Amino acid sequence: MRGHETVRPRPFVPSLPPPQAPDDALAKVLGEARRFLAENPQFNSPRALVDLWNLFSQRNQSLELDDFGYDSVAARQWETLLEFLYKVWWRVTLGGVENIPVTGRALLVCNHSGVLPFDGGMVKHGILKEHPAKRRARMLILDMFTTLPFLQPWLRQLGEVRACPENGERLLMRDELVGVFPEGVKGVGKYFQDRYRLARFGRGGFVRLALKTQSPIIPVAIVGAEEIYPTIAKADVIGRPLGFPYFPITPFFPALGLLGVIPLPSKWWIDIGPPIFPTYPPEGAERPMIVNEVTDLVRTTIQRMIDSRLARRGGVWSGE
Q: Can you give the C-alpha Rg of the chain in angstroms?
């Protein structure tokens, strides 16, 4: 990467094709949901409500946890729900999974969106199901998500870890697959009009992490998650007293109450790009010019991947 001329991200205004008629898209999703429930009777019975309650009440756990609280027994219980979201609700198409190494450490760098961390869950589930080695990624998550009572058990049991340099370094030095979202709160809190335009990548913390651990950086572009909660306004006066940096206002929430919390069934694509191997030694993590250069390269790469997918996708809801 020495001698590389930094390419600055070009301004991008997405030009989205007209979506498929909502009635047609909803009918397609409901049809796929019926087929899924027919193939998974355990998900379509009164017992399913009990199972969901046990999950959220943190029952059915094992006593063998790793040092971050990951519970392999509890995590397996979430797989049916994640499979429903992955295959039926968002009909995720995952490409480039062969770019993830079969063994060894790697740092997945993803764009962030969607108010709640569904994007991380879909990246993780897709890799687990479609990678030949069935690798399980560990996502570094924002503090705000670890404080939400309805998300905390899910994230902890799935093995997600609070985002900080120390935790990331420990995981990578154990040769694990680690996912980061450098846009942070700015990514999940974008207005709908700013969708698919990458926010600033913080201060390059993920680059310092990759250099210190000599980990390859794998760019990941997620398209489709920007539409599940179209944020049109923010009520900070409500969010801050609750400990949140913002309170999203969408066309459906809070107007429709809990019904408005259901994410919209857009069609998703997750594209995994070829790994970027920083050629700098670990000491490069202490040099701001190197960190900025690699940060710009990764950010530009992901933006181009997003642009390419947007140019090729069809309807927002159907993908056709």
A: 20
List the CATH number of the domain containing 97.
3.40.1130.10
C-alpha 139/C-alpha 136 separation (Å) is 10
User: With b meaning 16 or more CB within 10 Å and e meaning fewer, what string describes 297-313?
Assistant: bbbbbbbbbbbebbeeb
Q: Which domain holds residue 172?
A: 90-228+263-312
Question: 59 lies in a domain?
Answer: no
Residue 239 in any domain: the answer is no
The total number of structural domains in the chain stands at 1
pLDDT at 54 over 80: no
Instruction: Tell whether the torsion through CA atoms of 186, 187, 193 and 197 is positive or negative.
Output: positive
Mean pLDDT across 182-205: 90
pTM comes to 0.82
User: What does the block give as tokens for 5?
Assistant: 């001329």
Q: Is residue 117 part of a domain?
A: yes
Q: Are strands 106-110 and 217-223 parallel, antiparallel or unpaired?
A: parallel
pLDDT for residue 160 is more than 60: yes
User: What percent of the chain is predicted at pLDDT more than 70?
Assistant: 78
Determine the pLDDT at residue 203: 87
